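Problem: given the chain below (313 residues), write out its structure.
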Amino acid sequence: MNESFAEDPRGNLPDQARILITGSTGQLGLELQRIFAGSGSIAALDRTTLDLAHPDQIRAVVRRVRPQVILNAGAYTAVDRAETERDLADAVNAEAPRILAEEALRLNALLVHYSTDYVFDGTKPEPWTETDTAHPLNAYGASKLAGEQAIQSAGGRYLVFRASWVYGPHGKNFLLTMLRLARERDRLSIVNDQIGAPTTSIALANATREIVMGALAGHFGADWTGLYHMTCSGATSWFGFAQAIFARAAVALGVKAPELVPIATTDYPTPARRPHNSVLSSAKLRDRFAVELPGWESALDEVLQVLRRSSSQ
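Solution.
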């Protein structure tokens, strides 16, 4: 199938466009459903309807749906558990993207895939760029890097977006964990020597839609396929992130802040090693698409407002 995407004055895909979203019940999958609603016919599938660990199921679903856009929000994200479940992590994060890329190529569809800052070892003092050499410290990062490479090898039309410290109003993430622990404990110890850019699922979904629509409408020319970093701007530590969460949640949600104690990574050993510097430069994304995500603090405010509205309903 070799279909073209005609520009729609409303900024939508053609009425007949089919969009496949994997990982539909995850924090990013939910936001992608929200932002792409009305942009075409959406097939939003979760693990019960599309298990990315099963190659034959992936091929069967893609060939049945015949999507023109695939938004692969599904992933194996249990960083520590991946150290002992490497085969499963590789199946979902490396093999599944390869199959999706091959199927997308067959259909001349656009594949959008999300990767991670954990492909880097964190030793560089400056923000990481797309041309820096990846060197994962853990099995999760290695599986995500393999997924990137598989998509690039397959070719076709693809966008791989590396994000960092993803969180939002849904799913399992650092923000929601902090808010839960604040109800259970008076004192929390938080790592203070890992630096990154907290990035919301809302900001990722919004930017994804803007870029996908622009690319398919021909606004960016013909050479937009590739790998891009996509994070909120600015940087902080996990400790700094927790401080910001509770300072804002006290106002937005009436949450009582626990005492926060900064600790070193060595004081909180985990099965998987984490990079000390996870900050990604999104300059390539900005220069190529004129798209820039908000600062991480303002993005946090937006998520807390969503939670506030949800709690008042």
